[in-house]
Amino acid sequence: MAEQRFWEDIAVDSPVPPLMKNATPRQLVMWAGAYGDYYEIHYNENIAKANMLPGLIIHGTLKAAWLGQMLSDWVGEKGRIKKYSASYRSMDVPGDNITMTGKVTKKYVDGKDHVVEAEIWVQNGKGEKTTPGTAVIVFPAKS
Amino acid sequence: MTQGSVITEDMKKAIGVESEPTIVVVEREPIRRAAAAMGDNNPLYYDEEYAKKLGYRSVIAPPGFQPTYSFTLKTAPMRADAGPRMPTGFTRFMNGGDEYEFFQPIQAGDVLSITRRLGDLYERDGRMGKMFFTVNETVFRNQKNEIVLIQRSTTIAY
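ok -> structure tokens follow
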């Protein structure tokens, strides 16, 4: 695990540390099995193409889980995620270099919680945001 | 496409009506497999001893992984009044997105009681004509009847 970050270290407008992935079809099959989502467009190319898709596409829920991985890595073991979202606006495909990242929009104290809000998204190899969302997370405070 | 609203009074009445629960035992192996599929090697998902040192009872589920579909112990029976009929005339559907609200980590050994309810219905005009949004809320409660997670999933029909 990376070093623990604290609320005081986080600046508005600063980037969320990115997480890079390049999915393989094998990984999509593994996710299908673990999650229990056996929709064939994620592992059967003929069926994907019959559904007017260019080929296999990555599960939206897997992209959302990767946004969760990015947030978990960022907040560290002493932080926690309160809420986050992902809108599956455009498809992502295996073999593309995709990046999960984001930008801090707000920070404030709410009762005992030292809160940071961020815009988050998945971007494809061309730099297009395919999967935007928002996150509300709690960092530990130094004081 | 349809003129005016496709949302009927009957459909509105279905908002908030909670289903019977489905019961799921959270096991370590599906958590490990989900984390492996993600390529996430955080020891909290693999190593029970490590998780215990951080105060958990066992490994925890990564955010965005709900051990629900494949591993149910008891699935809620279909009810005659379950869910609204949606006679909207739309023929194409897509998964619009998910929102997760976390209250406690889901831990291996938890026995989850999972209910579903219709959260919201709304329409928007898009490039391809009218789009109809259905938000389904899935509520996960643990063995102490505490809400651990609410998942809000949006389906778009057009």
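Confidence is low (pLDDT under 50) at residues 78-82 of chain B.
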